[in-house]
Amino acid sequence: MVQYMDKNSGFNMWNANKNATTPRSPLSGFLWWTLLFIAAWWTIGAIMSPKQSATTTETQTVAVDLSSVPMTNVASDKIDASVQGLRISDVRLSDYAVSADSDERVSLLGSDGNFIEVGLLSTGAAAPTPATVWNVKDNTYTWRSPDDIEFVRTLTTDGYTITITDTIKNNSGRDTAFAPYARIVRDNDMKSAAGVSNGAIAYINSDVEDVAWSKLDKKSYAYSTTSGFAGFADQYWETVVSIDSPDQTIRVKKSGDKYTTDTAAAAVAVANGATATITTNVFVGPRDQNVLDAAADRIAGLGETIDYGWFWFLARPMLWVLNGIHHVVMNYGVAIIIMTILLRLLMWPLTRKSYVSMAAMQKMQPEMQRIQKLYANDKMRLQMEMMKLYQTHKTSPMSGCLPMLIQIPIFFALYKALLVSVAMRNAGFLWIHDLSAMDPYFILPILMGATMYLQQRLQSPKTNNSGNDAVAQTQRMMRWMPVLFTVMFAWMPAGLVLYWTVSNIFGIIQMQIIKRQSK
User: Fold this and answer.
1) Is the dihedral of CA 408, 411, 416, 417 positive or negative?
2) Beta-bridge partner residues of 250
3) What confidence tens digit (pLDDT) does each residue in 194-220 have?
4) What predicted TM-score, i.e. pTM, was given to this entire model?
């Protein structure tokens, strides 16, 4: 990025023209760009930084004695979950280890008091409660109420989705109705917080609603929808529950030291002697786009829950390309390097035009200085002469900034792609154990700063910058930019720093090639 801000860049030349008639502080150019970048960086940091949960409580979660309720298991090729009556907890993900060098599997809702509860409510008849003891055979649970209403619950699994089918057979001698409900109770796992949406999520009338943990500390939220789902999302994992029934009310709140999201659907009438069936789908798994899209067959809208940021139209294809390259090279570090080179090759014509334009600006410098001195007191004439000079040399004061402007959305898109990619988690490269986390030894940030400094030195012309004019002092101050960027990137995901380092190296090689071609 610094390469487009040196002394002879179009922007600084244009800035110098303005300084010819309106004196400015010597550090104005440097401070403008520095403050602009720091402001953007502060905004990202504010989003990334986890917020401390408030200790105030709204309602306490009622403790239920489950000691007499037997514990069973439900499993698929992807998950293994514990089932205790109406509740599902401790869902272990078979394909994901806690760390790269551990055999322990990731467990969702594994802490005490964390669970998913799927049940029924009725005002005119008895319904199963969390403490109800069922007759269990395989994955079928049976219970008969004192009113002679038989409840049969069947649990089936498909990947990361658990389907709960409740069949109600009414032999009570009177008509009745049951309203299905589901809720998720869990802790706030602050270790999962990052620059992606995490907290409560709800699918309301075909639109995804995100509620951050910090917002839940302050107030509760309620929604009405014809159909949808409710749940929680972390950086890499997602837990949602969806009742296949219309007219739902979804609430999200803090309950004591836990967070709760629940959904209740319209009551289902069951006439005497009739049978009714209610289906509820639960997803507990990774926030992987392919996995979520597959599960969306049962839970509509699930594939829309990943936050790719403002530049989602770049982040999604970049992640798709990155995963495609990984399938070939089998290493995400190498995949990032290859993708970086492909991006720079794609930008080659624009970058070449920028280099040629900057070379023309260097040749124009003596004439520009002459015009600035000659028409220092005639602003209108100065602008006319400068425009004529640009037309003669067929260049523009902003042409050198175009590659930088294009790299900004690419940078933020890749930043988001690396953060939301579950596959990047625990992905190693050389000495780095996790490309989605910072380099623990700060080697990559130092290499990035060194390559940025070298690129800046090669880009700068061999002229005397000892003057006190604004451009010269700005150029001297810009030499500190590699140090500033090194400090900023030290805590960024290592995969992103790898991309920027490789991009700098490619830019240095590209600049040498274009210079030889120009000669």
Assistant:
1) positive
2) 223, 263
3) 566 788 999 998 888 888 888 888 889
4) 0.75
